[in-house]
Amino acid sequence: MKRDAGSRTGRRPAPPGQPRLLTRLRAGGFRLLMAADAAALLVVMVGVNLVRFGTSWPTYPLSTYALGFVGATAIHLVVYYFGGLYEPEQRLGVRPALPRVAMLTALAVLLVAAVWLAVGRYPGGRANLVALLVLGSLALTGNRHLARSLRVQREGPPRVLLVGPPDDVNLARSHLRDYDRTTIVVGYTGSRGSLLEAVEDTDATDVLLLTGRMLDEVYPEPLTTLARRGVGVQQRVGAHDTLLGLRGVREIAGMPFVALGTHTLPVSRARFKRVLELVGVVAALPVTLPALAALAAYVRIVAGPPVLFRQNRVGREGRVFALVKLRTMYPHAEDGLGPVLAGDRDVRVVPACRWLRATRLDELPQLWNVLRGEMSVVGPRPERPELTAQYEQLIPGYSRRHEIPPGITGLAQIHGRYHTDPEFKLGHDLQYLVNWSPVLDLEILARTVWVVLTRRV
After folding, report:
1. What values do phi and psi take at 430, rounded to 5?
2. CA–CA separation, 272 vs 79, rounded Å?
3. Is the CATH number 3.40.50.720 carried by domain 157-260?
4. How far apart are CA 16 and CA 214, in angstroms?
5. Tens of pLDDT, residues 432-456
6. Beta bridge mates, 162
């Protein structure tokens, strides 16, 4: 590892200790930027009314305006949060904030208009909504520029460690010198083995991987450790990488990079997914409860007690939980066998219950696991602890599928079958996490129905 001369100049100071309350709030998803955004939105709404009407506001009492403005602010913050506007961002290659802020603000303004229309009160009118869209977007963009400036003052400028062969390092250093004078190059290394040591020795805040050959060497380690320490890692995009159809390419000193991270689904999107699924499960209970009662009665008649079968599975963050299914195998089917994957014509399955497994209706009781927060409707299928331990030893990065609660169905289930290799299933699972959206979940649910009807399991 080589350290650049003068790399200690501009060393970032140790972050000051935060109050315990603020630490707890941050752990729960709160950011000071939320308070700044709320204040900006309230100022915009009140200011627009003062400009338009002075101190004599029409139609409604002051309490109605106060309630309307506070409600509108709350709607905006919810949209911003679930839109990922408060997720931590890497310091290098930051994209312009205005386009994203304006898009989310437009969505929030539409929701506010719908609420005002539903209650029949317009504390501000249509012109105020247009002004809120324009001025609110500008105010929130200004908040983000201010937050970034304060971060530089608090932590110092980005301190970059370059990783790659000498020619690539020299080229990247010259670009950073010519295009980005606020970033400090603190050193370089060409070895994965010394990467963690180099980061610690130089106090680097960011790592730039300048060659694709390093990617296999840093994943899953030391990439996971660097992410846990808050060190940003970026991979330079080469000509051959564009064949993969990469999205999210960012510019750093004129060079194309993609941010690497061990978390594929941001916390805000994971919580949004949870809210949507809870609403969907509760809304479907009038249909699913009678169906479950009928299926349970059928299993009781053809297979005898017990009707339900519980089995330990690995869930979010590796925690083990009891998955619930309708029992389709004979009692004590695994005695003397241990954990064994079920076959197409498994002799342990009660013949009259084969159709339940083929249609996956035996999974219906797992809606209880969804309500408890142990599972999702859509997500990576949970495996047994014994099998998970084997896969984690054989397949690098297998534990990444545990970032969210496992699902009743998932992308791997509609593209693969029971005996699809676990490494191929992992590829589908991670693609699902990277590309998650409510539309993708609906598509997977629709295709699951087709898979069930065609018995392609």
Report:
1. -70, -35
2. 10
3. yes
4. 34
5. 888 888 989 999 999 888 877 776 5
6. 188, 208
